[in-house]
Amino acid sequence: MLVGHGGRVFRVMNRFLSNATNRIDAKGRVSVPAAFRSVLVERNVQELYCFQDFVFPAISVGGLDLLDRFEQQIAAEDLFSPAANQMSLLIHGGGVFMRLDAEGRLMVTDFIRDFTGITGEVTFVGRADHFQLWRPEAFLALQAQAREERRLAGRRSE
């Protein structure tokens, strides 16, 4: 989508990129970064589907299209198979719907805190078609580990 401003035309981002850390307020809310809110608007996401990530100590957040994608994977399996049952346990049993308030804040619920260990701050991490909520220290440590593993993999391919 192209947006005009002051005689200039800018492309509005339609993917979740980068990361930002915001403080949780006294009422347990955190402001979603403006760039992420813009993507939600661009994608016309009204209701957020949030689930406990399968790999990382993070909550993954996206629109209904994210839930639909997982449900299509389940439907492609025998519904009584172990794979379909495990996926349902993860995406249905480990998921909730949430909404941003009028100021673009998300309530940091026990569902989020208990799974991630988040206390006073939240790091928002872009993952292209969704974003994640991380405890800042956990994100920094795993990002550094991933960077080091990629660096070492690059050396091995030389």
SSE inventory with pairings:
Elements: E1 2-5, E2 8-11, E3 19-23, E4 29-31, H1 34-42, E5 48-52, E6 59-62, H2 64-76, H3 82-91, E7 95-98, E8 105-107, H4 110-116, E9 121-126, E10 131-134, H5 136-156
Antiparallel strand pairs: 1-2, 3-9, 4-8, 5-6, 5-7, 6-10, 9-10
What features would you highlight for this structure?
38% helix, Chemotaxis protein chec, disordered N terminus, six-stranded antiparallel sheet, 5 helices, alpha+beta, single chain
Provide a brief overview of the structure.
Helices cover 38% and strands 27% of the residues.
What this model shows, in words?
This protein is of the alpha+beta class. It has a single domain, classed as 3-Layer(aba) Sandwich (Chemotaxis protein chec), CATH 3.40.1550. Helices cover 38% and strands 27% of the residues. The strands form three sheets. The chain has a six-stranded antiparallel sheet with strand order 3-9-10-6-5-7. It has a two-stranded antiparallel sheet with strand order 1-2. Strands 4-8 form a two-stranded antiparallel sheet. The chain is globular, with a radius of gyration of 18 Å.
